[in-house]
Write a structure and sequence with these properties.
single chain; about 150 residues; mainly alpha; 2 domains; 8 helices; about 0% strand
Length: about 150
């Protein structure tokens, strides 16, 4: 299998370029929300807004959460390039078993770790049937046409 094709497939079977975080969509959503807030001056009047909506009493915490989203989800190089969840169970399991992908595991169908992520299990099943290289090529075509896991 070509190394570049494999490097774009997460151990779990998700295609990293199809991820909203990898594509920068989460960070862009925060940027867009900040623009709307600033354009309407909501950031200047949270105390006044709290008269109609009590949640605005927590505006400062909301700003901190938005900043957290920007820091945490500013982009991802792919899980094979040290991105993604550092405590990912599937990554650790594949490494312990010396497997490239969950799709290579004889226990894939009954794996409780993979079962927690329905889309990852579905993609791993497709990889097993199609082959990782061909599957990655197909996914890249979909991504080139605007596909993102956020839209499913």
């Amino acid at each position: 299998m070509k190394e570049e094709a494999l490097s774009q497939i997460g151990y779990c079977g998700l295609y990293c370029p199809a991820c909203g975080i990898y594509q920068g969509k989460v960070k862009q959503a925060v940027v867009n929300l900040r623009k709307v807030i600033k354009a309407y001056g909501f950031d200047k009047i949270p105390a006044e807004l709290s008269k109609w909506e009590p949640a605005f009493h927590h505006y400062k915490e909301f700003e901190e959460v938005l900043s957290g989203f920007e820091r945490l989800f500013q982009g991802c190089p792919s899980c094979r390039r040290n991105g993604g969840d550092v405590g990912c169970m599937m990554r650790e399991c594949c490494k312990q078993k010396s497997l490239a992908l969950c799709a290579d595991c004889a226990e894939m169908q009954s794996c409780h770790k993979l079962a927690r992520m329905a889309k990852a299990l579905e993609e791993s099943q497709s990889i097993k049937i199609t082959g990782a290289e061909k599957w990655a090529e197909e996914m890249q075509k979909k991504v080139s046409n605007g596909y993102c896991y956020l839209e499913i």
